[in-house]
Amino acid sequence: MAPPAPAALAAKVRTLGPSMTRSMQRVAEAVAGDPAGCAALTVTGLAERTGTSEATVVRTARALGYPGYRDLRLALAGLAAQQQSGAAPAVTAGIAVDDPISSVVAKLAQEEQQCLADTAAGLDTAQLEAAVTAVATARRIDVYGIGASNLVAQDLVQKLLRIGLIAHAHADPHLAVTNAVQLRSGDVAVAITHSGRTTDVIEPLRVAFDHGATTVAITGRPDADVAQYADHVLTTSTPRESELRPAAMSSRTSQLLVVDCLFIGVAQRTYDSAAPALSASYEALAHRHSPKRI
């Protein structure tokens, strides 16, 4: 797999940082915060700057998707050049209790834009293509999600149903497992979990995986438990949480982008059947949207 493009480096740090050791986090935060300064440092210099070791620097580079520190330095130089050319810096919401509503709107809009940009930059298109192929040819698609992720699961399912595919969203963990037992080769199971550690989502995915279904994980933690049972992993960004904006809010934006990308890819692959099915669903509901005459 090719190393991440320079523009994807900050997204990689935000996504993978929370799962790194504290010393690796210091290296990752340093390169994302000052790419120009770090690009000028040798591996020894960066280790000294971050109070870590050369081995930690190399491990961090590899964790971020680069074969070695030399490749990371090249990416840092490229990112620094982009920033000097006028590219907008990364923005986090940082909403305070006493912020006026106008500031809340502006900060949330910036945060959503950054979240979408990070997800797009870090999304593995080869994994996405494979997931699209599996869903487009599936006999049946089961989608698992709990809490806010279940809202995203339902969004995916209603989209697939509108183009004529057989899909189910399961929020009840017991029902999810009993349905997963029925899956076979040719079926697809999709798990949506921001943390990658939600037991009620991982368990049905494991059962589906064991029964031969193709499995897909949409998660902000590609190295978490859910990936063990996923044939294809679609990574979402990991925005900074705050007291007023928990992960349930911030993660949903990037999950919905991935779901939309997956759905559009499937609709493209199945256009000959998807287009008539979508038209038929619109026609079936048209009378419900017509103004009533008095």
What's the gist of this structure?
With 294 residues, the protein is an alpha/beta fold. It contains 13 helices and 5 strands.
Structure description:
This protein has helices at residues 9-16, 22-33, 35-39, 43-50, 54-63, 69-84, 101-122, 125-136, 148-162, 173-180, 199-210, 247-269, 271-289, and strands at residues 141-145, 167-170, 188-192, 214-219, 232-235. It is of the alpha/beta class and 294 residues long. A five-stranded parallel beta sheet has the order 2-1-3-4-5, with helices on both faces. Strand 1, helix 9 (148-162) and strand 2 (167-170) form a beta-alpha-beta unit. Helix 10 (173-180) runs parallel beside helix 11 (199-210).
Q: What is the H/E string?
A: HHHHHHHHEHEHEHEEHH
What's the main sheet like? 5 strands, parallel
Radius of gyration: 21 Å
Number of helices: 13
Rounded average pLDDT: 86
Strand content: 5-15%
Number of strands: 5
Residue windows where pLDDT falls under 50 for at least 5 positions: 87-93
What strand line-up does the widest sheet have? 2-1-3-4-5
Determine the structural class based on helices, strands and strand pairing. alpha/beta
The general outline is globular
State the distance separating the first and last CA atoms.
Answer: 63 Å
The helicity comes to 55-70%
Topology:
Elements: H1 9-16, H2 22-33, H3 35-39, H4 43-50, H5 54-63, H6 69-84, H7 101-122, H8 125-136, E1 141-145, H9 148-162, E2 167-170, H10 173-180, E3 188-192, H11 199-210, E4 214-219, E5 232-235, H12 247-269, H13 271-289
Parallel strand pairs: 1-2, 1-3, 3-4, 4-5
Helix pairs in contact: 1-7, 2-5, 4-5, 7-12, 8-12, 9-12, 10-11, 12-13
